[in-house]
Amino acid sequence: MKKTFSLIEQLQQLLGKDRVISNPDELIVFECDALTLHKNIPEGVVLPESTEEVSAITKLCSEHKTPFLARASGTGLSGGATPAKGGVIIQLSRMNQILEIDYEDEIAVVQPGVINLHLTEAVSSRNYHFAPDPSSEKACTIGGNVAENAGGPHTLKYGVTTNHVLGMKTVSPTGEIVEIGGRCEDSPGYDLTGLFTGSEGTLGIITEVTVKLTRNPESIKTLLVVFNSVEDASISVSNIIAEGIIPAAMELIDQLAISAVEQHLNVGYPTDATAVLLIEIDGVATSLDKEMKRIQQICLSNRAMIAQIARTDKEREDLWRGRKETVGALGKITPAYYTNDGVVPRSKLPEILADTIRIGNKYGLRIGNICHAGDGNIHPLILYNPDDKNEVENAIKVSEEIIKKCIELGGSITGEHGVGTEKSEYLGMMFSEEDQEQMKKIRDVFNPDYLLNPDKIFPTQSKRNKINLKKTKKLKGWL
Amino acid sequence: MSQTGSYSFPIDLFSNDERKLLQECIHCGLCLPTCPTYVANGMEMDSPRGRLYFMNAALGGRIGLTDSLIKHTDLCLICRACESACPSGVRFGQLIEKTRDLVSPHRKQTRINKWISNTILRRVILSHRTLSVLAGIIWLYQRAGIQWLTINTLIKYLFPKKIRALQNTLPQIPLKRFGKNKTQIFPATGEKQGRVSLFTGCVMDHIFPNVHASTIRILNWNGFDVVIPKEQTCCGAIHSHSGDLEMTKQLALKNISAFNDNTFDAIIVNAAGCSAQLKDYHHIFPNDPEVERFIKKVRDVTEFLSEIDFRIPESPLNQKVVYDEPCHLIHAQGITKEPKKLIDNLPGITLLPLMESDHCCGNAGIYTVTQTEMSIEILDRKVNFIKQSGADLIITANPGCQIQLDWGIRRQNLSMNVLHIVELIDSMYQNEPNYPTTINL
Fold first, then answer.
1. Percent of chain B with pLDDT over 90
2. Which of B56, B78, B106 is the last residue of a domain?
3. Would B244 be classed as within a structural domain?
4. Whole-angstrom Cα distance, residue A137 to residue B83?
5. Are strands A214-215 and A128-129 parallel, antiparallel or unpaired?
6. Within this chain, do residues B161 and B199 fall inside the same structural domain, yes or no?
């Protein structure tokens, strides 16, 4: 205890008292991110304002052998910013400056605390945007997007965060400031930028990111299609892709999710629909009409009730607001929810969506579904009451069964939310112990004492024993 | 880590409905970037999500009524921007006001706080006559050019530091005030469209009598008789924001009875903070048909002008303006398109975009006095965006915002004006034949 106290004191000397939070009453608000199932209170929170301060902080924490991790808006859904082993949270919300925008090279250099949508807003007058668009884009930060390799509805056409990151400045656990990647595509040597993107804050703390800016499409069309069955909707998705059409986004929302959205947001989803598809295509204006017509035909041939194109920008914005804020709107129908994240091959969508409902029924829990249908990325929303121990346990069981099912169907345990604390137990379902050991060797190169964001991604010893290991992939040969 | 007074949170603090509201926050975090205090200091405790987390923790007995709970509750502006952002529709304002009401007896009572809640809020602002005298003294004081007395000499120690700081925020007080000795009626000009009543509030009569005069003239010019009932009083917003629910109730009852007249088509309010408060009376008296009838008639003046067949001024005014949205208009009442459309339709006026026009300016009632440092930080950020916009005139629709923005541009030595939207419209009507020119103030 004494050791921690002196660390806090040293941090206070470094940053001043008002940028170090150590009052236990105040620390409770940092016990979880947007995944409220897993909680742990940190011993301190610090608010650095520069790379050099982050470096000094990590050095101090390492000297004191105290775990630490980075956090900003805390909108992550896999517990990536939860202090699983206590220690110090490095809160990056004050490092929120856009350092440079270069339209000739089509890049921006930003600090990690810049809000995703703020970057798009800063470049929109010049017809650019930042392509990764997680549903939390209004609040989530680019540092977090890079750490989790975040996706979003437009991932289908534009790729995930890693496709838009060129380089970064990072701070190692012992305080070295290391620049990786650069301002151009494909730096020589190992692709460390790719390795750091999606490393869930376990390899280093990102303090600057160089990202690509994407030119806005000339024209956009958004279609809302109403179905009487989830199956018809998901078959349409596969049919559209099979036709050779790659929409910018293709989202499925089911009845329960719609009912939450329409209670407060009122964006115009039909509440009697069993499922809706939100399909967006973009590109050169002249090519869109034909493509849209074909999409409508496919949907109608799959028994769609209505296939309505948004007539105004306002209508389009409303449709997207509804989709992007679905998770937040669940508060209207449940005191707590657990947003799961799994992937299946696109063609297996009808099967997995039916299974989620079946599994929910088995445990007496309501499940809503929203998915990035074009990617086969499902987000079953498991509704539960956090004050009912039984329901909490069941929510976890439901999640486990759904994830198992995803793997059975040839998919994976996470599409874009990351493993974090949420799915670390499930990693063994995909990778053998040997595979995991190989991956940990990579981590140990950058994070040898495992003080930086511990207990993430890999199962902790006690949990590992519970999981029935299944060897599905072998890495040993080539690592 | 000082924890003076660790009291437990009474379990019945929130009604069942309010507990349900609290549960509707599912920690998504979409409110964070809309919260001016979070934007300023980046601390989760000063975000709406963090504050709700405190309320939940306190309800569950995890934390008591400690200094830190009070501190973070008090730092909230109650601008309700988080309500606009919340996908679940959590009514944060209602919850934080309840929490303030609860913590207020446990607050460290500084001289200034006591003075504000007992003398200013409960007496001074409720008496038209006292306010008149006070405004007269301030007018004389400002006119005599003796501000240096309280800034540089020993006399300054007679006043609390915060009050000394406050004098900088005050705009020039006009000599004329809006009188309320008797019920007044101002008849419509030309063809009569209807009959409305005007809510005049408390300090506006003295600091911004011109806003009332402008409101009356433009309503008359658009064909409405305007009645000003004598018995009305302060709306109670400041009392409910600072957690004095008892006083809030008394004031609400007085106003509901003062405006109980079937001949009024609407109750017009030209202060967004007041219109928001009047519309919230049903939270104080749930399921009361008389209250519902009252609320139904309340219209912010910007809302009302966009509902009627508004007379577009004839001569153009070539000015580049920005519109800074009062929190209590956009967030508390969801009124944002109406005033912008109204301004945009005025001939000659160019409405420029303003970054973070939906963020609070930091006035928030008595916040400038109680949380001066944070208020200034928020204000300076606002004024920087205004500078970047390229406008030469700032339009808003609430007296608090007018005072604060005026102070902001004086702080940075800018030569700009701040006008209430009705003042702008009134000035554009001025040259039209038969436009009512005098209102007996």
1. 61
2. B106
3. yes
4. 18
5. antiparallel
6. no
Of B25, B41, B44, the CB nearest to A29: B44
Instruction: Please list every residue in chain A whose beta carbon sits closer than 8 Å to the beta carbon of residue B48.
Output: none
For A336, what's the count of Cα atoms within 13 Å in the CB-facing half-sphere? 16
Termini Cα distance of chain A: 41
Q: B342 and B227 share a domain?
A: no
Percent of chain B exceeding pLDDT 70 equals 91
What pLDDT digit, counting tens, does each position of B32-52 carry?
A: 999 999 999 999 999 999 999
Q: Which two tokens stand for residue B388?
A: 């970047």
Residues B322 and B394: beta-carbon distance below 8 Å: yes
Stretch A359-366: mean pLDDT, rounded?
A: 96
Q: Residue A344 is encoded by which pair of tokens?
A: 């299946």
For the stretch B151-172, pLDDT in tens is: 666 666 666 666 666 667 777 8
pLDDT, mean over chain A? 92
Residue B26 forms contact with A (CB below 8 Å)? yes
| Chain A closest-CA separation from residue B343 CA (Å) | 21
Give how many domains chain B has, as a whole number. Answer: 4
Considering CB atoms only, which of A118, A326, A331 is closest to B25? A331
Domain spanning A98-215, CATH architecture: 2-Layer Sandwich (3.30)
CA distance B142 to A216: 55
If asked whether residues B155 and B239 sit together in one domain, one would say no
In DSSP notation, B267-331 reads EEES-HHHHHHHHTHHHHSTT-HHHHHHHHHEEEHHHHHHHS-----SS---EEEEEPPPHHHHH
Tens of pLDDT, residue by residue over B228-261, are 999 999 999 988 887 788 899 999 999 999 999 9
Are B282 and B370 in the same domain? Answer: no
Alpha carbon dihedral A135, A138, A144, A145, in 10-degree steps, equals 50
Grouping H, G, I as helix, E, B as strand and the rest as coil, residue B111 is helix
Residue ranges per structural domain of chain A: 2-91, 98-215, 217-332
pLDDT(A457) > 80: yes
Q: Which residues of A touch B54 (CB under 8 A)?
A: 28-29
CA angle A352–A343–A319, rounded 5-degree value: 85
Residue B440 lies inside a defined structural domain of this protein: no
Overall fold of domain A2-91: 3.30.43
Q: What's the CATH architecture for A217-332? A: 2-Layer Sandwich (3.30)
Q: Say whether both B232 and B142 belong to one domain.
A: no
Instruction: Among B307, B339, B374, identify where a domain stops.
Output: B307
Instruction: Please report which residue ranges of B75-201 form alpha helices under DSSP H.
Output: 81-85, 92-103, 111-114, 128-144, 147-152, 161-169
In a domain, B354, yes or no: yes
Q: Residue A320's pLDDT is what?
A: 96
- Residue B3 reports pLDDT greater than 80: no
- Judge whether A332 is closer than 8 Å to chain B, CB to CB: yes
Host domain of residue B160 = 111-169
